[in-house]
Amino acid sequence: MSKIMSQQKSVLVTGASSGIGLATAEYLAVQGFHVYAGARDMRALGALSKNSNITPVQLDVTDREDIAEVKRIIEGKGTGLFGLVNNAGITKAGALMDVSVEDMRAQFEVNLFGVHQITRALFPFILQVKGRIVMMSSDSGFFATPFVGPYCSSKFALEGYADSLRREITPYGVKVVLIEPGRIVTAIWDKGEKSIADAQHHSMFWKEAKALGEYSIRKGKTTGLPPIAVAGIVHQALTLEKPKLRYIVAKNSFEYRLMKIFPAWYVDRLVLKKVREVTRLAEKNTQSSK
Ligand SMILES: NC(=O)c1ccc[n+]([C@@H]2O[C@H](COP(=O)([O-])OP(=O)(O)OC[C@H]3O[C@@H](n4cnc5c(N)ncnc54)[C@H](OP(=O)(O)O)[C@@H]3O)[C@@H](O)[C@H]2O)c1
Question: Which of 40, 65, 117 to mutate to test the pocket of ligand 1 (most atoms within 8 A of CB)?
């Protein structure tokens, strides 16, 4: 059982069982925060559960009962809550015309409705201490890649959600910060590999969707930043007196800034060129391996 010191600020991190959430929970605990580490399966928290600054909590963000229980735990411990890090997320990919409505709903269930559900539930704690809400968005929250439509849509929605929320609650002293990571080396890419393996091979978009999916996964695994890079930014978002409203965490943040200012028709042209190039390369590789 962790012993929480009265001067410690408490923060809840959702999706702390792996990747960015795990690194963030660990980093914040080392920096002196008391962390409620949310996981769907608490066994996945492993050694983290033994850290005296960490209280593991069972938390599926789509489950009302789990959320109610987390509220009870925070009340019971009497720590209040200074920060909420909405990190939990899933990725549904594929050509949009192949994506079922059920898959689209499942995507939004976690990445948007889950965020809304837990933020609403815990807002009274955060309001009380004029705390902070950190949203784990993505480069996909401002740059929509083809064949990852469900995920991009959900992160664009999250950005809109965070902007509206910030404009509503800033006057009450609560800060809302969006974090927009580019490629980060986590299990997200292995999960992507699995979904390509399970995908619909008969689709008219299959060749491009597969080529681009495999290309992104390869790049993600080999050129991504470590999750600790995001954890450090989350810490800044929670501790700087005046944090930025948005943080891009990527090696190529300059390119992203350009994409934000180029006209859409020009970005479309660049994207299409890339899709053709990557698909051609994948075909060439398939032929040479036969
Ligand atoms: N990796 C990147 O390149 C990257 C880039 C931009 C943004 N992001 C964002 O960063 C966040 C973390 O992703 P990651 O890369 O660290 O991937 P990850 O290793 O797959 O972690 C995702 C986390 O979300 C949890 N989760 C999934 N569904 C949940 C639910 N219904 N309730 C509670 N937790 C749930 C997972 O728990 P389980 O272990 O139980 O599945 C896991 O802990 C996501 O929001 C993602 O969109 C990642």
Answer: 40
User: How many angstroms is it from 287 CA to the middle of ligand 1?
Assistant: 35
Cα 248 to Cα 228: distance, rounded to the nearest angstrom: 14
Q: What is the mean pLDDT of residues 11-32?
A: 97
pTM above 0.85, yes or no: yes
Place of tokens 């390369």: 281
- Nearest-10 Cα torsion for 195, 182, 180, 210: -30
Task: Give domain status of residue 34, yes or no.
Answer: yes
What's the 283 CA to ligand 1 centre distance in angstroms? 31
| CATH code assigned at 86 | 3.40.50.720
Q: For residue 50, what pLDDT band results from cuts at 50, 70 and 90? A: confident
247 is catalytic: no
Mean pLDDT score across all residues of the chain: 95
Q: How confident is the model at residue 1 (pLDDT cuts 50, 70, 90)?
A: very low
